[in-house]
């Protein structure tokens, strides 16, 4: 029987609680002239991305997400185009990050480096070795944590080159030994099992699996040897009764732990792999700790299986697509199976030109034997050229195929990998047998589970996820009316005290649609979300025209309670400009902070729009009593100095977005004006901008159907920012245009229950809106949106 566990059930008796994630956002700090940089004349720009070298040529980027105060942390691709994994460590002195490149070293991104021990006198040596789940020597990231005083030491074991055996008290080294004083310690390691055959490309990216092993509490009284053996760890398994699920590529996102010492000092370790061949995490069972606290954490994503194969007489098959990173830049360029078919199997050997000569495969499944002398792309595309509908590449050696053999060539048909035993089973099917091939590229559901295990790792880390006991989010992603729409997505779970968090960006396949998502209720995990349109690139092998995506981030964060259900709409029209909801327009003394987001959808999700080589053009202008005090065509945020005393301030923002992927809000022009006066220099006062909210009943393609009389109506609300007293508003005026603003006709505006009801003049096609509104407090807004949404009949 299963045991209840805060909406996640574990199949054994030890208790467990739900967890959070690693992502990339920072909370915006309160603003005043005390913490604002003194601007030069005009508009002082916001900070740009920071790139940090982390040793061995590896780099990470810390990038503000718009002007929200949020910062994403991500590894950058190396010279070979490979994006490695990340190791993030936080202790009482600060946060360090390194990549999984062999030569990368822990580099401080917040706080300062831990001081060296004053002397090695009275210390004892701890010696280390690591073995993977296959019994071979493995890579390991080892942390020794003093449970009395909070000091920490790190040793990294790599297999090529082999680590040295020097013993010292330095906090980080690539050696098998460390000197520490006798005492009580946590000695834990992330052990990386390497592929059976080392890939010639992407060795810092592609590994078999990762295990968390070691002793969270042990006594050191003299010299000791710790042998970290991943075979002692148990596979993390999550069952989803009633739904077929699997971990998709990169869905094993995080394995980590937190350890607190007796004095309250803590260490937090996160291993974020780039690509696991078998998509498994393993954890070694541990006794319960008695000093401080201990918590192991994993984050795993489950979806409907993206690809399945089944055949008569064959055993259960475990197909995986080859790693798309090597053959495409975006998910829409990587061919996948969509639907179900029964295909004959044709064994084409290594798919050489000679072996395929004269063959016509007529949509069959081509079974190809992996060759070290040919790239996967060459083998697959050779078979596709002779009519293969699907290519299955079976390994000829042990383990899983880890080496693409070459990059920079797109695949023509879906290409799947199998291990040697399963590939042999396909090759031995009875004559005339067919293989059932089924693909689900757009899963109708996602389990995004951050699992926390407190005090000890159980003997059996198997859990049961029951949707009726999880928090449910229904994501609705809106797209273009007639153009194909592609998207990517990221979910950001925050833990108390997080400064930097890392998340994985996934393709959101299937275009505009609705999807159910399930997460563990946990008051200590606050989630935020982002959607990117068009889809985000994960490589740069195939040059394309520059693109500025519409990156929409959810305002604020949401922690979920038991059985809570929420909606997560993104991209609902009209897309307008407005102040960043996390950074309202504020005045401190005579400095005015302005942060305008050009992408704000009807549900308040927001992102920055700025002049870009893609053809996007923006202009921000700020005036006081008609005199220009600041302007920029770049990132539309910063601070300006206003004249002392009272003045009438106007902020205008225009944006043109002619990009090929976009047909809505191709031009927006918004002007706010309001009275303002000098405030105390040690306080920030939010300014009374008048903000329109449109609520149009569009479908997922941002189209609205006129009623039988040809009418389209929607709700309009006018408000001031949070914290600013509201005032009465006069009746707004709104005009509509069905020819991109060449001619305008007035709409009918009447008082509604919570604002105004707008009925558009008859028409069809892409409608533009022109609004004028003001309130009795002197705030005025004028807003034009060209191609706000589509009207049909």
Pick out its properties.
disordered N terminus; 11-stranded mixed beta sheet; 9-stranded mixed beta sheet; mainly beta; 61 strands
Describe this structure in words.
The chain has 3 helices and 61 strands. The longest helix has 10 residues, at about 375-385. The model is unreliable at about 1-5 and about 10-40 (pLDDT under 50). The chain has about 800 residues and is mostly beta strands.
Helix content: under 10%
The shape is globular
> Major sheet, described briefly?
11 strands, mixed
Please give the number of β-strands: 61
Task: Give the amount of beta strand, in percent.
Answer: 35-45%
Can you give me a brief rundown of this structure?
This protein is mainly β and 793 residues long.
What is the topological layout?
Elements: E1 8-10, E2 17-18, E3 44-45, E4 50-53, E5 59-64, E6 71-75, E7 86-91, E8 94-99, E9 107-111, E10 124-131, E11 139-146, E12 152-157, E13 172-173, E14 177-180, E15 183-193, E16 206-207, E17 209-220, E18 224-229, E19 234-235, E20 237-239, E21 252-260, E22 266-272, E23 275-276, E24 281-283, E25 294-303, E26 307-310, E27 320-321, E28 339-347, H1 353-356, E29 365-369, H2 376-385, E30 390-394, E31 415-418, H3 420-427, E32 434-439, E33 445-454, E34 462-465, E35 471-477, E36 487-494, E37 506-508, E38 513-519, E39 526-533, E40 550-553, E41 558-559, E42 565-570, E43 576-579, E44 586-588, E45 591-600, E46 606-607, E47 617-624, E48 627-632, E49 637-641, E50 647-656, E51 667-676, E52 685-686, E53 691-695, E54 703-705, E55 713-719, E56 733-737, E57 745-746, E58 748-751, E59 756-759, E60 765-774, E61 780-792
Parallel strand pairs: 10-18, 12-13, 16-23, 17-24, 20-34, 28-29, 29-30, 30-31, 33-38, 35-42, 54-61
Antiparallel strand pairs: 1-34, 2-33, 3-49, 4-5, 5-6, 7-8, 7-22, 8-9, 10-14, 11-12, 11-15, 15-17, 19-24, 21-22, 21-25, 25-33, 26-32, 27-31, 28-32, 35-38, 36-37, 36-39, 39-40, 39-41, 43-45, 44-45, 44-52, 45-46, 45-49, 47-48, 47-50, 50-51, 51-61, 53-55, 55-59, 56-57, 56-60, 58-59, 60-61
